[in-house]
Every structure is written in structure tokens, then in C-alpha cells.
Amino acid sequence: MSDTVIQVENLAKRYVIEHQKKGSDNYKTLRGAMTNAAKSVASALNPRAKREVGSSREEFWALKDVSFEVKQGDRVGIIGRNGAGKSTLLKILSRITEPTKGAIRINGRVASLLEVGTGFHPELTGRENVFLNGAILGMSRAEIQRKFDEMVAFAEVEKFLDTPVKRYSSGMYVRLAFAVAAHLEPEILIVDEVLAVGDSAFQKKCLGKMGQVAKEGRTVIFVSHNMAAIRSLCSGAVVLNKGRVALVGTTAECIAIYEAHNIQNQGDVWVRSVESKEDSLVITEIRSALKGEQPNLELDLEISLESRAKHKPAFIAADILDSTGTTIMQALPTVEGFLADQKPQYPVRFLIQLPPLIPGQYFASIWVGSHNTETLDFVGEAIMFEVHESPTIGRSFPHSPEHGYIVPISTIKY
């Protein structure tokens, strides 16, 4: 008997996107909406009628020719940039949506956690939703009762167990949803990026639980942009790029390919290409230069901003990310608002003294806001810079991200 539990063959998913052409009324009025609706009905009833010139249809293939297989007990990461087709693939694997082409063969009971509160009814209490969700996953009442206390303890929502879940925070939602999915003994557990909703302690607990599930011989399919989590949990991975499989291989091989895709079209200059006139303070251009030598590198950022409307005095911050897009540190030179709305143009020189970094590619994201909870503009992964030399003089063997990205200066005392 084959130990393959998931087999995907030439899978494809097509969506049809409607576009409004320039010059159409875009349904801005009730009259316009009714007129367009009437024309659509008339066009459908009369196949010879000319199609409405105000709109067009476009085919979009979210997945194309996707093939791979998963063995029993495998821990497989699905990785790729936003829009690569990861969530579409998981929805098809979970039988939420049907593929346009291709076939999927699944041998075993599947439990999916694709978004916060999947399968929960907002008017029911947490206790009632545990039994409802368990029944949806195919469990008997006796099975649910046997695992009930363990699930509630894992979710840490005992105090609110008899409160309708519509009053839960997103974190409480995902705690209980994950507890149900992971504890009801599915042969295959599918988890999307939803774990990012929880706090770091809960995420660590979830990763530990998924590792335990895999050790018990069950299969885990895990989607995440957190490459550290993928490294620690997954034994293999599938890289998706623009709806197609870029690689099926080991975790290390797949993360390397993902990183290569991630750094394409990145450089030392970023210029805003899309107008955002409704924003009050806008970043229009970023230029960067890496100066100095290891272990004393400095990132020199020249940032151009435009004040286009009245706003509170704002300050600026920069996140430094590794090649997988994971933030490893933040530079915050001042929390005093120095960007006011009296001047339309603001050139800012932002100097960041970098700690000793291991060789590799890094990104800088720039944020401006008047308070840590009020963002005026944000440019994610705008700048890429590369560190070539080791911060440790005389080191000949390569650094590993598993041991961290920063090498603190250290000494030995005899």
C-alpha cells in the first residue's frame, strides 16, 4: 500500500475578473447601475447583441499545472510571495473550492485552519462552537468530549468559554480554532498564515503542537511567510511563483529559491510610481548607500517626503529585514515629531549604525507616522542591501541563519 496521502496532478484554477473601461459610469449612481444591469440581461438573452463596451472580462489563472505529492508524516511548507497562489491551493486541498483542471487525491481525514474562526458561528458560545466545529470535521460527540478539556486548556479561553464568539478578539478566535483543528486527530492538518494573528508565545505553542502531530505519523501542510517557522517545522517544501511550482524539494533548497525570487527588482533606489493624493504625508523617494567595513557598517538613507495636507508632527522609523522578509531589528532615531505640515518638501538624512551582520541580502522598510498606532505612510522592503564579508575577522567557515543574523562582539577572559 502506498504511503502517499496527497497527490496533486496538473492542478489549475481559473477566475474571471470584470473590468470597467475608461469612460464608463462605474455604477456611481443608482440610475447607472440599473441601466448597466438591464443591458447585461438583454445581452444575455440575445446572443447576437453586442457586448457592453463599458466593461471587459479577463481570465486570471491563480494556479497553473501544479503537481506534487505528500507522503504520510511529511511536514510540508507552501511558500511564495503574496499572490503566488498559496491560499487558492489550500482551499482546493480543503475542498472549499473546485479546481478548473487537474486532479487531487487525498487519503485521510483533513482538518483545515485557513482563516480566523473557520467554521465558527458568531452567535454561538465558545463551548458550542467546539462541538459544532468538531462535528464538521467528522468527529463523534464522544471524541470531542474526550479532548474537550485539553483543547480549552491549550486555547487559554476558559474564562470566556460560555461567551458568544462574536465578542472574542481575533487572537481568542484563532486560539480556539487552532485548538479544535489540532486536537481532534486529523490524518492531515492544513494551516494557513492565520497563526500570525496570535502573539509570539502562542505561535511557539502552535508550532510545537504541529511538530507533535507530525511525530505521531500525521501529515502537516503549513503556509507561512515566516521562514524561521518553516525551517524549524518543515522537512520539505513547495515554492509557488505566479501560480506555478518553482521547486519541490528540501526546506533549505526551497527557502533559497524563495529568497532569490524575493530580491528580484530590488536595489538601492526606490521611487513612488503611484500617486496617493489622499495621504497627508507621503514618501516619494528613497536612496541608500552601505558605507564602512565589517563590523562597523552604516546604512545611509536619503528620504524625500511631501506634506500634502494638514497632519500632526510625525517621526520616522526603519525596519531591517532578512532575505525572507522577517524583521530582525528596528531603527528609531527619535520619537519627537519633527515632520510638520508647514513645508511641502522634506529631505531627511537617516543614518543607521548596523550591528555586526552575517553575510547575505537585507531589506529596509520605511515608516512615517505621528504616533506608533497612526501610520501616515509605509514602504515595505523598499531598499535591498547586501553584506559580503563576515563580521568575524579570520573566519573561513560560512555563517548559518539558524544561529541568528547578528554576531555580537565578544571576548574571552583567561
Compact description:
The protein is of the alpha+beta class and 414 residues long.
- How would you write the strand order of the largest sheet? 5-6-7-3-8-9
The percent range for helix content is 10-25%
| SS field, number of helical segments | 8
> Number of domains in the coordinates?
2
Proper CATH architecture of the largest domain = 3-Layer(aba) Sandwich
CATH homology superfamily of the largest domain: P-loop containing nucleotide triphosphate hydrolases
Order of helices and strands: EHEEHEEHHHEHEHEEHEEEEEEEE
The mean pLDDT is: 82
End-to-end distance, in Å?
62 Å
Cα-atom radius of gyration: 26 Å
Which overall shape is indicated by the principal axes computed on the Cα atoms? globular
Counted beta strands? 17
Structural class determined from secondary elements: alpha+beta
- What is the CATH topology of the largest domain? Rossmann fold
The fraction of residues in strands falls at 35-45%
